[in-house]
Amino acid sequence: MKVNLYYIFISLLVFLFGGSLGSFYKVFLERRERGEDFIFSQSHCDSCKKTLKFYEMIPVFSYIFLRGKCSYCGERIGRENFYLEVLTSLLALLVFMRYKISLETLIVIVILIIAFFIGLIDYKTGYIYNLDLIILLFFVVIYKIFVLGGLIDSLKYSLGMGLIFFLIYFVTKMMGLGDVYYSLIMGLLANDLYEAFVLFRDSFISAGFISLILILLKKKTFKDSISFGPFMTVAIIIFLICR
Fold it and tell me: Quick check: is 74 in a domain?
């Protein structure tokens, strides 16, 4: 069996890019929460504050080579960092397998990783932050204009989606305004009515399916509430990879 070394090399670069972007955004979120400088400060160990060398910041592989410990103080590195890098790396690889080498691949990877963290933060804290939505909106607009060639037609699906979610929010109080704002961006990804329906449908199907699993695993009960942002993220990921 012949192996295309060029394809393997590009796949590795995409894998590392996805992990790097995931790690980058996670650091951005953490420093934002702590009120630390993000632009000029260097990456460091949270325990001993030593500045990390470049090879200690290679996503996924550096954790394996360092055996999950800081090379300076020996403090354990949180496994969550490793898992997030693996997930965002695999997500980038899936996008590459779908869109190959293209500008679309690059932008879709960025969109999905930002959406991934929006869903993750909402799951952990119950909040969707406006700054993250603005960043996501920026890249979605770039994607619609420079890759798909138009934005105007998608505005009606965005407004329609936002209106439906606002009514759910207003009538049931089961969602927050962050979910409404997020739905506006989700609707903007749709190119026609059917795609808008698919995004809406998949967000609620994933909500029902995942909620059922959590109940069966006794992680949640029928009386518990659950953030809806992660399910919109799932719908966006499925949509952009499988469209």
Answer: yes
